[in-house]
Amino acid sequence: MAIWTEPLTLDKLNAWNQGCAVSHLGIEFTEIGDDFLRARVPVDARTKQPYGLLHGGVSVVLAETLGSVGAACACPAGHRAVGLDINANHLRAATQGWVTGTARPVHIGKTTHVWQIDMVNEAGELTCVSRITMAILRPTA
């Protein structure tokens, strides 16, 4: 059974992020499952640091994007999801191609969500693991 509180499409998720950091970095949503979201980021001139590696901050942007969108789409209508804490462990460098992140909920509560985001290179090797805690805010009057 899907955890999403409204129907989701890739077109909707990608359009939602147009004109902000997500689209400027080339991040695109690629898959929606019953309990996960998947997106990828290119390893190119926009996203590399001076050593030619994917910038660690870009991995965190990918993780925060996936966790935030996941929480926003899994919380009740009218509620908002905002980040409380994020961490990331960088395990392997990426120098080319795409890095793909998959976000799954660890905890979906009334006031907080915790999401795990695993990122892999094109060979399927883990490049970064991240966990984000989201506050779920009630609608304001």
TrEMBL record:
SUPFAM superfamilies: Thioesterase/thiol ester dehydrase-isomerase. It holds the Pfam family 4HBT. GO terms for molecular function: 1,4-dihydroxy-2-naphthoyl-CoA thioesterase activity. Keywords: Hydrolase. The keyword Hydrolase applies. It comes from the Bacteria. GO terms for cellular component: cytosol. Residues 51-128 form the Thioesterase domain. Belongs to the thioesterase PaaI family. NCBIfam families: unchar_dom_1. PANTHER family: 1,4-DIHYDROXY-2-NAPHTHOYL-COA THIOESTERASE 1. This is Uncharacterized domain 1-containing protein.
